[in-house]
Amino acid sequence: MFCAAVLTLALLFYLPLTLLAPVPLTRGTAVAYSAPHTQTPVLPLPTYGASAIAAVGYPGILAASGTTTPLPIASITKIITALVVLQKDPLGLTGDGPNIRFTETDAAIIKDYAARDGDTFPIQVGGELSERQVLTIALVPSANNYARALADWAYGSEANFLPVARAWLSAHGLTSTTLTDCTGLNPQNTSTPTDLIAIGKLALASPVISSIMDIRTATLPVVGLVNNTNQLLGQVGVNGIKTGTLNKSGASLLFSSRLTIGGHVVTLVGVVLDGPTHPIIDAAIARLLTVARAGFHLETIAKRGQVFGRYVTTWGGKTTAVAAHDVKLVLFDGTPVTAHQEAGAVMPGKKGTVVGLATFVAGNQRTSVPLVLSSTLKGPDPLWKLLNPGQLS
After folding, report:
1. 106-112-116 Cα angle (round to 5)
2. Cα-based angle 197, 364, 41 (whole degrees, multiple of 5)
3. Which of 28, 50, 124, 257 could form a disulfide with 268 if both were Cys (CB 3.0 to 4.6 A apart)?
4. Are 208 and 214 in contact (CB under 8 A)?
């Protein structure tokens, strides 16, 4: 009788404690990620001077060639001048800014620039143009005297402008760029493709400069009709940025090109320095852009249902952690893709229950996808619980 009573009491406690005990967590095992494999295209960079190409939002340089010694940048200088002036006297996207009044000094500088074969345009002493109009004349037809007038207006003189411009270069880590004037007529204004691509990205990020640099023609007071010196505008997506020409330093172009891949916009930025002529470098850049653009694809880097983790329970249940949906990125061929998956410990749950996250990194791009159970993970049956009390939580 006593033994029966003890057994009955034991069962009364044991059965509820085991059958109602929490189910133990099941930890997942990560499944190695296999990235899509593509071949890096060979980009046809010019063999003369120095050149490079990159993409906004993608790390580093896609390709580069030629000397790493800084070369003259000629009128590409005017992009730096515009950025430094806009730092002091910013414009809104649609604003014209304050008026700039032209003086006898502005008129006198025309003779000096013309004597050095620098492009100049007429001014009206005592006349006024808006800051946006002066920027347009300086950048579109590359008017040296208007670039100088802009620097003088903003900083009082070119001598005052230059220390500020050099400090601006230093602040942006552009240590391979040297500035000795605000126009680029001085061949001692030099830089490298790497620095110029960074400058090009800063120009693209400026709403004012990006709205001016792809103007093909403009009619402005005093100067009349002006044409953009960049003859590549509108071809292979080219929308800027600035030409540079010196008789002793050849033809140069800091360029940008927009392309749309699967609804995503990619902007290429590149430069060619010290080329033979503008028609020759324009043709070379067009070939380069055609090949580079073909190297970008909208890649599916993970498919819906792709396995990133596995679960095996101590009571014999099995399921997997899978991507909840497709993941796509615009990649340049050869760009490595890495993944980090976090499939947490789980309780029994229904198919589609979120159990973790997979994060993908490709260059500067980062995206994630939830990981979900591919099938329902059932809990243990009562018999297993009764026979395995030590494995219950």
Report:
1. 135
2. 65
3. 257
4. no
Q: Which of 176, 179, 191 is nearest to 271 (CA)?
A: 191
Residue 161 CA to residue 86 CA, distance in Å, equals 12
- CA dihedral (164, 210, 248, 250) in degrees, to 10, reads 150
Residue 342 belongs to domain spanning: 22-37+300-388
Q: How far apart are CA 178 and CA 192, in angstroms?
A: 10
Q: Are residues 271 and 306 in the same domain?
A: no
For 242-297, write each residue's pLDDT tens digit.
999 998 889 999 999 999 998 889 999 999 999 999 999 999 999 999 999 999 99
Angle at 84 (CA atoms; ends 289, 184), nearest 5 degrees: 65
Per-residue tokens: 98: 């304050």
Lowest mean pLDDT among 11-15, 105-109, 335-339: 11-15
**What Cα–Cα distance (Å) separates residue 268 from each residue in 57, 94, 156, 216, 240?**
10, 25, 36, 20, 11
